[in-house]
Amino acid sequence: QALNDIIPLRDIFGLVFFTSIGMLVNPAFIHENLSLVFLLVALVMVGKIIVFSGLSVLFRYYNIIPLAMGFGLAQVGEFSFVLARSGVKSGVIDAGLYTLILSVSIITMIATPFLSLLATPLYTLKKKLFTHEQFQTVNVPSDGLKNHIVIMGGGRVGFQIASIFQKLKFPVIIVEQDFRRYERSKEAGFPIIYGDASQETVLLATKLEHARLVVLTIPHISTARQIVEIVVRNNPDAKIIARADELEHMYELCNMNIQEVVQPEFEASLEIIRQSLIHLDVPVTKIYEVTENIRQHTFSDKKLEKLDHSFLDKARNTPFLLQMSWVEITDDSTIIGKTIKELEIRSRTGVSIVGVLREDRLLPNPDADFVFKKDDYIAIIGLPEEKRRFTSIMAK
Fold first, then answer.
1. How far is it, in rounded angstroms, from Cα 97 to Cα 37?
2. Of 21-30, 304-313, 321-330, minimum mean pLDDT range
3. Buried residues in 360-388 as b, exposed as e (16+ CB within 10 A)
4. Against a cut of 0.85, is the pTM above it?
5. Cα 9 to chain centroid, rounded
6. Which residue pairs, CB below 8 angstroms and at least 24 apart, start in 157-163?
7. Beta strands at 361-364 and 352-358: parallel, antiparallel or unpaired
């Protein structure tokens, strides 16, 4: 906020500074010493380009960064005016040398913005000549990325999503512009690119053309529009999930053919409804139908009042149906090494065992002689009271 408040003052001082410097220029002097002035301009700018480009390479910044640094910092700095003026006052330099320094500095300042425009075409030429060059990224696997998930934004939401995907062994890469968030994601071991996600060059560094899913956690609708356009242009087959801060933005993003749009407040209301219906013993399948019904009416008519309330009454009065649950066999479980027949699970508890997940294999409908092992996951079907009896048997 403080920085925002001083921006107008900064602009005023900048205007005064460059106007006053421009008034000090002596066109007659430049005309009389044209060859000397432009020789010094060339030496200064070429020298600074070499120095700053070399420094960026020395600190292992590659790709377009050396060109951008060299061309962007090729001008003589403003502090040179202060040094030159102090030199005149102290008698170290005369007025002629001061005017020469002033002329060279101003010409380099005028030329640098135009010179910096050369960075992109020169880098494009460099990529054509040196096709082996790779984008500079962090923690990216050596074998590259394919069928991966691109997460736009490494804030709290993006960081949490990346953590879950990483635990589930899905390849991800994050794009983040905030340096602190970038450092946190880098330390967590996530593949990450530092840059503005709305810039096509940055997104292409994520191997966007090979991405399976793109997740937009950035709440700004203008940035989201730009990202969606870039994704559709480079990978029309990629699925997109976007975040919207306002309900109006939600409708706009849905009209852009995005697969899923998440609005935090709207999803929070659905989650409260879901949790409430669970405590009212409404079956999970019915709860899913209710929430999807709400979503469909919201997107189509934009009025939740058009929801069929008779459906909610039917769901409320529906008895709790049988539901499947997964139970893990831990070290202290008493059923390790025993068979289904020995335990008499069906007669003692009422639940039915419909499957067992052992390591990476699913064993459906095990027979009565099936022997349980540690770290098995058992799929059971039954009423809540029956499930509680089964878990109590496992703990005895």
1. 11
2. 304-313
3. eeeeeebeeebebeeebebbbbbeeebbe
4. no
5. 34
6. 157/217, 157/243, 158/215, 158/217, 159/184, 159/185, 159/188, 161/215, 161/217, 162/188, 162/190, 163/188
7. antiparallel
